[in-house]
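fwd from M.: "can u put these together and see what the complex looks like"

so here's what she sent:
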Amino acid sequence: MKKANTAAKKSASKSASAAVTLLVATRKGAFLLKSDAARKAWKSSAPIFLGHIVHHMVQDPREPKSILMAARTGHLGPTVFRSTDAGKTWKEAKTPPAFPKAPEGKKGQVVDHTFWLTPGHASEKRTWYAGTSPQGLFRSEDGGETWSGVTGLNEHPEYSKWMGAVENGTPNGPKLHSVLVDPRDAKHLYLAMSSGGVFESKDAGKTWSTLIKGLEVVEQFDASVLQFHDPHCMRFSGPNPDRLYQQNHCGIYRIDRPGDTWTRIGKAMPKAVGDVGFNMTVHPRDENTIWVLPMDGSGVWPRTSPGGKPAVFVSKNGGKSWTRQAKGMPANNAWWTVKRQAMCADANDPVGLYFGTTSGEVWASRDEGSSWSCIARNLPEIYAVESAR
Amino acid sequence: MKVILPSPLVSYTVKREVEAQGRSLEELFADLDRLYPGLRFRVVDEQGALRPHMRVFVNGAQVRELGIALAPTDEVQLIQALSGG
């Protein structure tokens, strides 16, 4: 009986395997890395928008040939490009995300770059959300052609208190990111801000409440002050939108709703490695399985692989314990930095994992992290890696 | 009037030199955006300021204010300033 089950599982695995396209966003343009069905052979496209600073590139799961890209250049202002032919051709948004013009005599906000893109709910076919730097939430209802600010957040009377001043933000500008749309309810949203903390809306962004209980902040700061909170990356657990995982500046967390308190599951990480990092990757079908890629948060915070020994850590029990996964990676002298959008999973069985380094390498695992290989090198500084079908 | 553009904007205009109209720089950018949709926002932010690494010269003199008056015989040149490596 056991053998039959194993055979059935293997058969399911085989049928679930499919070619993957990685949407790689870099500081100097975008690249599409395409695999064969076995995910063994990879081929890179020519650079797309070479020289553009591309912060994020995301496929529309409702319309898989559509991809949105958030880009700017050193000289030209921020915009959004859309492809409806899987990246062959691109068209610029008519009205990219932008804050409203301030009344005469007042200083208005300026979008420096669009940082994050999230497709809307499955029932809202053309809807997208964008998070910007400085922190702003924008919504498009026409597939990314025109964007409007979500005024319930961007024009909230407490906005400046939540976010703090731009100059106090992260080095590349404060960011709104990790926009999550509850697959059961289009109006139920979460988002995170660096800085600003975690917020939840149950009315499509009209009103917001905070969700920061249990999250720690840098020593000697007051955790009740939102602008001291720095969530780096927040995800729904794959199959269960009542569970969220988060990689924060101050540790790895989990929350089970309707609970309102985050638990620091990173405390179970090895002490020598710590639980600082940027990305959080979730298993698409198992709510207990997640991956993180730790960064060195000691001393002056190098934010490189601790000890120069890069590794992914997996937890298969919701964060109770962690296992190191580094087979195939350099054993030492590899000082990688992997940013918050630069690691992802595909939907295959076994799950494929991918991450891109700021030194321009893309690494892949076809066996849920057990072994790794480098599938691209010599790319520009990688900002984001997303998988597409 | 003649408008000379930097290479990053050629993806909008195809040419480095174009003709556009306006009694002020603000009006000129509005006309350029009408002729080449999307161009203005890449150069002028939502608060009406020139983006940090763009420079505008009118008849060879640098200007920052978009309200400055223009004559049909003026020559306007946009230049990309240094913006890092």
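replying to her w this: The CA atoms of residues 74 and 335 of chain A lie 27 Å apart.
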